[in-house]
Design goal:
Blueprint: H1 5-38, H2 42-57, H3 60-72, H4 85-117, H5 126-148, H6 155-169, E1 171-173, E2 176-177, E3 183-184, H7 186-200, E4 210-212, E5 217-218
Antiparallel strand pairs: 1-4, 2-3, 4-5
Helix pairs in contact: 1-2, 1-3, 1-5, 2-4, 3-4, 4-5
Length: about 250
């Protein structure tokens, strides 16, 4: 299902804003993490770990989930979700970051907070630094993918493009009605074009529509507003008489 243009724009705005919010939360985890890893005071250590726990407890998950869901709405755009390698990579990397943050890093922060509030020193600086650093690196990498759009199409994307190009190339001219109710196909339109060029010494204006297998429409010869719909001689009588447009 393709989203309409206003819906696509609204989704894009929400996606960009939520992704920027996720970056802000990542930096908000990294700053107190560095403070906790270098703190010499138990009070500063406890305050830093508490602030990290507050972030991972509630604001980080909704923002990350919103980023993922709005990214999934790429299914409703021309980009698709699995047509381009960079989008496919971003999706799985985002999913991995969410799983790693809320089923790995969050548990480490909760455990560290329990130890620190009990009066124990920070056991391992990696418990408060590893998660934010990996998240920030992944985020910068995904922004780079969004800007450069590398690696081209996936196998499925190449198949879809080949099918789309085949549908566009395999065009069919919509039959038109000549005077008297007779239908005129592509051969008739070509004859009209040749007759017009021979009698007026000019190129006939394009008109009418061309319909493709994919539902697209293009302009061709033969609309009712064009001089090409005027009565012309048949091929059998072309050599004996020529009827001018009236």
């Amino acid at each position: 299902m393709k989203l309409k243009r206003p819906a696509r724009r609204a989704t894009l705005v929400v996606h960009v804003v939520s992704a920027a919010g996720w970056l802000g939360l990542t930096l908000g985890l990294l700053a107190p993490g560095i403070t906790a890893a270098t703190a010499e005071s138990a009070t500063v250590l406890e305050a830093s770990v508490r602030s990290m726990k507050t972030i991972v407890d509630w604001p980080a998950f909704p923002v990350a989930l919103l980023t993922l869901l709005t990214g999934l709405l790429a299914l409703g755009s021309n980009w698709g979700l699995v047509r381009h390698r960079w989008i496919y990579t971003k999706f799985w990397l985002t999913l991995a970051m969410i799983v790693g943050t809320f089923f790995g890093f969050r548990d480490a922060i909760v455990h560290t907070y329990t130890d620190v509030t009990a009066g124990h020193p920070l056991a391992d600086a990696g418990d408060v630094l590893l998660g934010p650093m990996v998240s920030l690196t992944s985020y910068v990498f995904m922004v780079t993918l969004s800007i450069l759009k590398p690696w081209g199409l996936t196998k499925r994307g190449r198949k879809q493009r080949a099918v789309s190009r085949g549908a566009v190339d395999d065009t069919q001219v919509v039959p038109l009605e000549a005077p008297g109710g007779a239908s005129v196909g592509s051969a008739g339109l070509a004859w009209r074009r040749a007759w017009w060029s021979a009698t007026t010494h000019s190129t006939p204006p394009p008109s009418g529509r061309r319909k493709t297998a994919s539902g697209m429409k293009r302009r061709v010869l033969g609309s009712s507003q064009s001089p090409m719909n005027w009565t012309i001689p048949s091929r059998s009588s072309a050599g004996s008489s020529t009827r001018a447009p009236s």
